[in-house]
Fold these 4 entries.
Entry 1:
Amino acid sequence: MMAIEVEGLRKSFGKVQALRGIDLAVPQGSVCALLGPNGAGKTTAVRVLATLTRPDDGTALVAGHDVVREPGKVRRVIGLAGQHAAVDDDLTGRENLLILGLMQHLGRRRAKARAAELLERFGLADAGGRLVKTWSGGMQRRLDLIASLIVTPAVLFLDEPTTGLDPRSRSEIWSAVRSLAAEGTTVLLSTQYLEEADRLAGQIVIIDAGLVTAQGSPDDLKNALGSRVDVVLTDDAAGGGALTKAETVLRGITGSQPLVDKEARRLTAAISAGAITLPELVRRLDAAGVEAEDVSVRRPTLDEVFLSETETGTEAAA
């Protein structure tokens, strides 16, 4: 079952085409990460799915409800934590959650109980009676996430949930997201942290210039890009034709010209996954008389996948 289904989604702002026909399918109870450079269309996609922006064309279903024809039903089953905190700094954490619970028609008793439950669960119970403006940035971000969970959503949208947080606070948010997905909530997050997407998401969607350029699991995307072969020659081997010999070996393995950094004595080449093992590569270099200081065959990182799938090559952001 798909919690989010998108086909041919388009949205323009004047002459700017923010979304140019994206397709997306996110299974229930999973975490999907949206990656892309500045202006790629990630935040616009989230806003359309959360019914904050009306699309120009295409269809989008969230929990089976059409975002254009049934926006009220969509809003009843989603949670949203945007880039900027939506809580009131001049209220306590407990008061913020109580008011939100009353707005969700929980009634005072249920709203109070739910606020206490969430504060305890996310490690904020001791600070619940203090004004939010006295809280740390990480605590405020966690409260903002909690605010979207007053009524447990079927689908939770997170727009850069850990931007600006220290590593400990970021780890706490990650734990919360994992717990929510394990309990059945579908999470769609846009993030500027590639490590965050790699560690949290079972599905990654890369958007560039309003189009989906790649999607799949982190492993699938890395495997599709292939492996990397790196060879660093010793100081003694850097001259005397050793670079040329090493180039010949790598060309024979990969079928393409490797990148050569003469100053660093390093050769790098892309290769299909499983094409050669590290021992075999070392044997071929030895047979060619190449003395290497370091030899490695490695999978690409998500950073390398991102750079290969985006035109600008800038860091992921909204």
Entry 2:
Amino acid sequence: MQLGMIGLGRMGGNMTKRLEEHGHDVKTYDPQVESTAGTLEELRDQLDTPRTFWMMVPAGKITEETFQTLIAISDKGDVIVDGGNSNFHDSQRRYAEAAERGVKFVDAGVSGGIWGLEVGYCLMVGGDADAVQQAEPVFLALAPDDGYAHVGASGAGHFTKMVHNGIEYGLMQAYAEGFEVMEKSGFDLDLHEIAGIWRYGSVVRSWLLELLHAAFEKEGKDLEKIRGYVEDSGEGRWTIAEAIAEDVPVPVISAALFARFASRQEESFAAKVNAALRNQFGGHAVQAVETAKAQTQDPRA
């Protein structure tokens, strides 16, 4: 089938390649990359009706601007798929705005990262059945066998992907903490080897563990080239907010998110408060900043 792909970054570019490998006719628009179209209007004119557009752009302002332009230039019966990590509340609103113009809207949670081109993308799709059916040949081409589902009504796709990413936070943090315990031990463990054997027969084996093994192989057993600074793109925060609204305890996901916050601090002000309080009530020694810097300075410098 024909598809208009909007956004040719790491995900959109590889998805376009995978679709073309599966015989689909993909027209493209990305102002930063060579594309078949120079504008969204030109992209529209390159597609036969009813058209299917796929937005694969960063969530937030860019997605909103792209969506508003698309519903203004689309015809009744066209489908707009948002494959980014949008908040599901925004997706429900966009569904309603599109429906007012007779345009169909589908929210597609996409997981697979840079490996999706080779192994396929897990797709969690929300929206009306007729809209999903119109775009389904694309979903089936992008996903591996049994890796795609129409999970529910508008917003359900991005809601499911939000929870998926919240779970991912917890899994990653558990691996991170366990490997740090081993790294700090006195056993001089080969973490690359351990990550390798845990991939086979272990109850903690997973694709994330396979990726960690590959990271040790590429970056070295001490990961010395990598700074321990971890960003978050919002889904963990949204998962926790929804859990609070539903009175559901999510201590693991919450702790994992807060660990990411901590990773971005050169020095925690909260830790300074703790040190000052211990000094005040118990006379415990505090370490001056200059002393700490001297102790952590590389002696080879």
Entry 3:
Amino acid sequence: MEEEISQIEKNETWGLVPHPKDKNIIGTKWVLKNKMNEDGQIIINKARLVCKGYSQIEGIDFEETFAPVARVEAITMFLDFSCAKGFKIYQMDVKSTFLNGELMEEVYMEQPEGFDLT
């Protein structure tokens, strides 16, 4: 959790403001996951702070949504082509991806429980 909070603070993702009475406030929750090795032993505890986006109302809180997700067919075609041409393929994990996106609307979220952010 500390790593996630430090990324939020480092990127200046948000700031604490007084609770606006005329705005919809989106709740937050922590999603915890244990990553295991091939022997089933826990090697990493991961924590992600997520918003409860289902409480938003289209047309009031947002106009459109977009999630960059690759289709399985596109990945298969990419891998087939790469193998045929002998290309090397590398994989990477981007931490805190959502923190780097640009929003066009103001979004108000609840402060996560148990942390005093400034």
Entry 4:
Amino acid sequence: MSEAIRLMRQAGVIDKTGGPFGAVIVRDGVLLAASGNSVLRDNDPSAHAEVNAIRMACKKLGEPNIKGATLFTSCECCPMCYATAYWARVDRIYYAAAWTDYADLFDDSNINDDMKRPYGERTVKISQMMQEDAQQVWREYRALPSKTRY
């Protein structure tokens, strides 16, 4: 966790590559990846420290998941980072600062609350269209003998 907090300071205060967020991924006592937030440097709203570290770890292992890994993050995961950790099959997450520690600067809890609302009441409007076309692709995918499940 100390390294995640060091990266938090590096990204947010010293290098100013993004908000003050840092993340470290360890599996079986081996450091797989460490990263800070790079949203501003990369002009990429998904370049959160956790997502960056997960991408690095998966690339290093040559696999789309890091089952058995632990994520140490300087701050409580936003919904995107949690979902990325979930899809990467991270086993455990430890965090230092809670959403309430920086709610005046970042809206992680607001996003979490927004996602609980019905589609029609969310900030980002969501509507379904062309469902049958998409279902056809799913039928084709299901028929593939070499389909990937993840």
